[in-house]
Amino acid sequence: MTIARTICLGFFACIALGTLVLLMPFTNTEGIWTNPVVALFTATSAVCVTGLAVVDTGSYFSLWGQLTILLLIQIGGLGYMMITTFLMLLIGRKFDLMQKFAIQESFDRPFLQGSNNLVRSIIATTLILEITGIFLLLIVFVPEYGFSQGLWISIFHSISAWNNAGFSLFSDSLVGYKSSWLINIVIPGLVIFGGIGYQVIIEIYLWIINFLSKSKAKFCFSLNFKVVTRTTMMLLVLGTLVVFLTEMHNPATLRDLSLEHKFLAAWFQSMTTRTAGFNSIDLGKMSTAGLFLTMGLMFIGASPSGTGGGIKTTTFSVLMNCTKSALEGKDEVVLYQREVPSTLILKAVAVVFGTGTCIVLFTTLIAFLEPNLEFIQILFEVISAFATVGLSMGITAGLSTGAKLILVLAMYIGRVSILIVIAAIIGDARPTSLQYPKENLLVG
Between helices 342-369 and 401-416, what is the axis angle to 10°? Predict the structure, then answer.
């Protein structure tokens, strides 16, 4: 039982348990046994914090069903190993070296010492920001739905947003609130901080403490912090401008809105492509240029150790600078005056190649099963599932059982990570001392 297999089986067990619970009659409003495909698809989408749905979450599932989905979202957002470790800490049990390595693998961070404090910090950060989001959303939902229902809607959307899940209790997601400034600030704030990664949040906290204490020692941010924040801001701004330009004359999306609300809606769509899954305009009516941009942003996704998916902002930044170095004739990749190890470059290439291969394979299979659907609809759905985004052009519910099961597999692999899945299949690599002679090869 390797670390990769432990992680894969852990997520599989969570999905299986969630499916069994959602099958029960008390989890849906009709009081009958839930369709197994619906239960499996919903449980997978929740654990993999994707947000794709084959039924309307708000009307199909009862309060118990919605609560089950919310718990699965929280487990999936934090990660199986993080939840397991936290429960072990609660009962006072120490975890061994294998579990420390599993946490390291889950969060893509090389740490061993201080694992207990890190787990507690992550849980505390999650609870603080989710509760803050709940109180802010109460301002919008309580006057409209009353205290009890407004409180539940606020809890559901705050947890869903923080975990980049994209599940909504409204049939049109957040289209009805595209002009609400508070919704367009709180939801994106939760999504961005949830997807930016716990390591970045902890560094922000430490910087604030250092600043308030007026320490003379200069606080130095890590390379990960610099790359993640710069790339995230660049993609958010670029996405907002391009969505605005491509959709400003589209009567089905932005044309009839005021200039202020056009930018607000464009900002929301740029943010939600970071694997959030919410939408404030009808994505099925976006222009081809807007859809293609959205797919590109979904493919990149969020950041390492966060709750989002995609190839990650750091992978995108490493490969972008790798291309720059190749054009400049350099032999090394440099970021902020730091040389990137060749192992990280190889890992970035493997992630992109593996992700692209899976997307091509799954798109081909669904296109074979659904010949009546347009290619862009299928490609959009597959990228959204694999990058655990949850955005859809409205075709999810109408897919055949085979196509839905393919999306289930795509969501699972995308959440666990393509490299971990491959490592679970082939096992740990064996160390070797062999070195082979070098030889040039024509490339490009």
Answer: 170
Q: State the Cα angle at 200 between 108 and 190, rounded to 5°.
A: 105
Q: How far is 178 from 281, CA to CA, in rounded Å?
A: 7
The helix/strand/coil state of 341 is coil
Is the Cβ–Cβ distance between 331 and 342 less than 8 Å? no
Q: Which residue has the tokens 């958010």?
A: 236
pLDDT at 98: 53
What is the C-alpha separation between 257 and 259, in angstroms, rounded?
6
Given a contact cutoff of 8 angstroms between Cβ atoms, the answer to whether 103 and 82 are in contact is yes
- Distances in whole angstroms, Cα of residue 211 to Cα of each of 217, 218, 219, 392: 10, 9, 9, 43
3-state DSSP assignment of residue 249? coil
Whether the full predicted model's pTM is greater than 0.70, yes or no, is yes
Strand residue runs (E) in 334-415: 334-335, 338-339
CB-based contact 395:53 (threshold 8 Å):
no
In b/e form, how buried is each residue of 368-400, taking b as 16+ CB within 10 angstroms? ebbeebeeebbbbbbbbbbbbbbbbbebbeebe
Please identify which residue in the block is written with the tokens 């749905």: 53
Q: What is the mean pLDDT of residues 196-220?
A: 82
| Three-state DSSP state, 221 | coil
